[in-house]
Amino acid sequence: MSPLSPSLPTRVRTKVRAAVRRPTRLTPEETEARTLVLRLCSLALQYPDSELAASGAVLTSTVRALPESPAREHLAAFTDWFTGQELDALERHYVEMFDLRRKSSLYLTYYLHGDTRRRGMALLTLNQRYRAAGWEIGGGELPDHLPVVLEFAALAGPAGGEAPLRQHRRGLELIHRALTDADSPYRHVLAALLTLLPPPTEADEAALAKLAAEGPPNEEVGLDPYGAYGDGEFAPPGTFVPPLPAPPTLSEGPR
Q: What are the boundaries of the region Disordered (predicted)?
């Protein structure tokens, strides 16, 4: 049952909901720690190349320097695992979790819009948000890639900077659940991030259950249905589906 009585005026209910979802006023120290958590999550979710793997000790010491919090505990669990792995093992695990499983894909607009035309508009809107804040994406990555969204949130601050994270709260929750089901240490990174966001509402929980069961919206003709690739997985990104053959041209002969 909703904690807000339907007898309350609509304007009051709207303001209360906004207050619940809006980040509370933070001290400078809390803002600094929050920014650092976002940047650490962004780094942790990037592809583990040799440079990132070599920085494991620095990541660990930075996490340990954070104030005591659930986010710090989750990130510490991740860095303990990360620093104990060989580079090839890190690479294999990352590809398996984020490139071969759509339920834990790091492209956030996919969960909200699936393979539909609306996703293209969402990507454009997100890119425009970045540019309006004076920030340009480097490296050729899509604007909805979670490490990119996290870096923007760290740069722009809790209000406008974290708005895309709050908008895609359900997708983030689904990624976390998929990583937890796979027993991936990356679940700790998502758990750390989720501690910074408002808890899911009843509507969020219902939408998550539907999304997990049915998959995101889809408009592309010829795609295999969700669940055809392993145990309940969505079709992997980049899956090639050959086009349907064109019907034969019929000749009516000379008239």
A: 214-255
